[in-house]
Amino acid sequence: MAHVESAHLVELALSNATPTDADAEALRHIEHCTRCRDELRSLTRLVTAARTAQLVDLPTAPPDRVWQRINRDLATGTAPARPHARTPDHRKRALLALLALAAAAGIAHRYLHERSKLAQPRARHQDRPGSRE
After folding, report:
1. 27: burial class by Cβ within 10 Å (0-12, 13-18, 19+)?
2. What is the b/e burial string over 86-101, where b = at least 16 CB atoms within 10 angstroms of the residue's CB?
3. What is the tens place of the pLDDT at every residue in 83-100?
4. How many Cβ atoms sit within 10 Å of the Cβ of residue 121?
5. Which stretches of the chain drop beneath a pLDDT of 50?
6. Which residues lie closer than 8 Å to 7 by C-beta, 6 or more apart?
7. Residues near 119 by Cβ (< 8 Å), separated by ≥ 6?
8. Is pTM, for the whole model, over 0.70?
9. Alpha helices in the chain (DSSP H)
10. C-alpha dihedral sign at 116, 118, 119, 125
């Protein structure tokens, strides 16, 4: 059997869908293929990290001086030239897009979960008879 497609490995790592016969076949291949097993393991770690991320894990905005320099360089046309990077093929771009989506979904889920936990005590306090709020 050929190696499992990267997009299929992403789906397996996300484990959002009901398993299919194709998933069972892919998992059988992964049992015997070090390359596919390592890639699935890496993707699963990434998905887990994204789903367990908290607000404090998010990067902070750069300081104002960074934005000021960017604006100055763009206005004067003196921005340093970017090195040419190899353009990834379509499969890699799809994989990166799926990974970014998984990370964003995990972070959003965690944020909404934390936010709902903070809102619950206030709601209970307001529902009590005799509450002044």
Report:
1. middle
2. eeeeeeeeebeebbee
3. 555 555 667 777 777 777
4. 9
5. 123-125, 131, 133
6. 91, 94, 95, 98
7. none
8. no
9. 6-14, 21-32, 34-51, 64-76, 90-127
10. positive
